[in-house]
């Protein structure tokens, strides 16, 4: 049992916190030195840092020899680590080149670093060069050399001109990996004298400018000849490459030739991986990034032009530097345990693995019987405290070496659980979760887990305990939720963990595979369900695994939560779209796709081949079908010599065809075009072909529909269906018409040629038979021999040449109650002046047997007609009504009309079975009773004897049929006792002496006692509410009231008008807006339904009712107002009559009060004279405030209606004159005097004031 691996910092923290007396720890290298290639102008630093307690000391080994950097004055050494560095200088640095290892040591062991190499390089310098000039003939190939300085560091090379502009590269001009510039062939435009190779060493921060090269291209004296390809780099037919796994490899293929060759790459021993390789430099380079062993094999480059091809084969061998497949772990052990350090490495070739202890090879250390090495596993049995050390495992092959440290720390420590108690864990259903129980101690503590309801968990296959003590639960289920306990064995040390398993995130409606036409919008939806205990998820859309985002400066994608919208689909939008619903606990994803479809492109390269007199082969090349396969091709033609030029369909072929043979007609000029059709629609038409003309030929057919349409007597009219002009087959087309009498005229034909039908021949006799035929002819010859047909000349107007009274021997045989057979003697055909068309039977219906008076009155209620052929002598008539009176007669007809009818023959049909009753109604007065009402059959078809009723339950299988027989024919209803829980089917038939008739069928069930509805839907308005419900089946209609109460605590219950349960809808009106109401329905002293609503709109502000509206208060106020009026009147009377007046004042008093000036400042104010006059008058209320002017003003102003007096000029002029007026003592100008107040809107001011 050994301790799990922790970072040393964590381990030391735990040890110091729990065991402060333990301070020592083995050295662990935390920063490794790295290999470097350096120039004299560079700084050099080799890093080596390590942790440990006590702090480790550092030493270096260079090329297997001890190296002390502190003794070199050029080097600076870090105090706290083994790191040393060299500052750039001008002097030589080659003495520092070599292989270095760092050793970090303390009392518990020694750790060894990886090997680091320092490679020193001289600073690249420009060597003396001769100026290069090349002169080549146009069309030849040429190589401009670069020759960069030698260095282990690959330079960056650019070809430029003297203005430092890059030389343009293409398939003809390309730069090789060696830096040279290759021309597959040159043109005159390539002539210049400043081709300069610029070599850059970024690590040395140096650019070396080479001498410019002059290239002169001499024009060829003759036509430049094409040349087949030849390899320029690499040369020869094959080359080999050795590369290490993980490195990059470029295979080059530069070829010369005219025109410039095209390059193709293949893998000869397999399939060339598109994902692991890429092409560069115009396909001249095949690039492998991070090459692997599987890429070993043979590759081939093929260079092709019009003159030929050349190939080059590349053998690629991939080997591998050593790499670890199993690494030893640093661990704690207790004395007596067995240590096993596993160390396995692989590589090509296979590496050799060696072990060291504290930096010393195991082979250089004295053997120990407790220690052994087998297959790379170091085993140390029965360890002791002195076995504490750092062990090194090293793997070496020809390419490089790797080294790893692992310490063995033998120590005794008491057990502890480091994980916090009571940790809460959440996991989504189906995911994996680990409940931590990290322990500390030596020997390593054993722990056990128990569940709240599970007990020991070792038996559960989904739960496993890991080496570090954690409990791993895979494929978590909802039942896993609960509390778990981790306990250290043989101790009371425990912790608990709480696990909450949430429902997994599910995409319930994934995006679909859409086929969208270009330019149309596409919408992908991704509906999901997330556990309510989780936060809102993030929805991430991807196209071909690349993230999509909604950009503010682009309307390419519109993302609205779980919906992705592409408003304008284009070709580049094709691909797989994935919706990821990401929560903190899990991810759900689903994919759809968009395939851009469109109408196909028109076919191209329409060609006509194999032309013949009557056919031609048409071929074409299909256009792009835009992801919707072509279903068929439509071939259209146009007649070029026809005045009305239009394209017409000629043929259709399947979508996988690219040629077809077209049938042509003679004497026509054609041109063709092709249209492709797919699911989206038709393509645009292709380009049309050249014109092809077919030679003339005799007609292939004759006209159809040759007949005689003769109407006039003694005239033969021959007509036919005109032939289509495309069937003329040549010039000079006509119809050759031939006719002859069938009898007596011999074999000779009468012939006449005309351009179009009809042909009329006169004086041929009445209704004579002719043999007629029509043949198509043109200048090239006649059509095939036509078939003849029989036609007749016109018929005479007179019809029969027989005595109308002659009997036709008409007879009737009764077959059944609904069918008869009519027979008659045939007429002699020579008596018919025309073609005998047949016979006409007139059938007259007079009604049932009980209404014989209709027969005597000769008034049939219905007449029907039946036509027969000319050679028939009898006819069966069906669908007659039984037990009825009929009559019939027979007449003869030809093309001109109908002859006289035979004498009517009377007969009656026998009795039959009745038709179904006319109606059947079901009525249920109670839950167990059903009354059936019916009306007699409309067609009794005899004497109705009575009714038979059968019924059975239809909602139960194998129920017997119940029968009610012998219901008298005069009965029209019957009552039945039925099961209220069943549905019944009723069959009611009438019957006569011949048997039962057809039934009338009805289904029904008894009606149950009704109740008001209880499942009511509400829809509120401002002052009303709509109530809707579904009436229950089979329930009897019942009336009820809807009660409502306003929820302000003041009103009483009110109710609606009477409502019927069968209404299914009712509007309750008269409510107040913005108010809450209680609604209920009571039935039989029980509340069946109750609900609360709030009406819409603003709340109705109701005036609060107070004592102001009480009747006693209104009466009191009215009495006080009346008393006040009386006091005011008495006060004014006293003022006007009291005191003495002068004669002048008395005369002035007789002036019309209307002429007195009025003060505009207020209502009820007086002039100064009037004030003086009234001041001397004693008053009834001299001391009262009611009689002073201010009081009157206050009274007037206190009224709710203020009246403004306006006098216009006309009114002023009228009031200025003197009139006879009553005594001034009784006519005082006062607002309370209706005789003197100026009216306001047609009313006295006093009335307006007291309104």
UniProtKB/TrEMBL annotation:
Keywords: Cell adhesion, Cell membrane, Cell projection, Disulfide bond, Glycoprotein, Immunoglobulin domain, Membrane, Repeat, Signal, Transmembrane, Transmembrane helix
Protein name according to UniProt: Neural cell adhesion molecule L1
Cited function: Neural cell adhesion molecule involved in the dynamics of cell adhesion and in the generation of transmembrane signals at tyrosine kinase receptors. During brain development, critical in multiple processes, including neuronal migration, axonal growth and fasciculation, and synaptogenesis. In the mature brain, plays a role in the dynamics of neuronal structure and function, including synaptic plasticity.
Basic and acidic residues composition bias: residue spans: 1143-1155
Keyword flag Ligase: no
Organism: Cyprinus carpio carpio
Organism classification: Eukaryota, Metazoa, Chordata, Craniata, Vertebrata
Compartments, as annotated in UniProt: Cell membrane; Cell projection, Growth cone
Pfam families associated with the record: Bravo_FIGEY, fn3, ig, Ig_3
Domain Fibronectin type-III: 602-697, 699-796, 806-912, 916-1010, 1012-1098
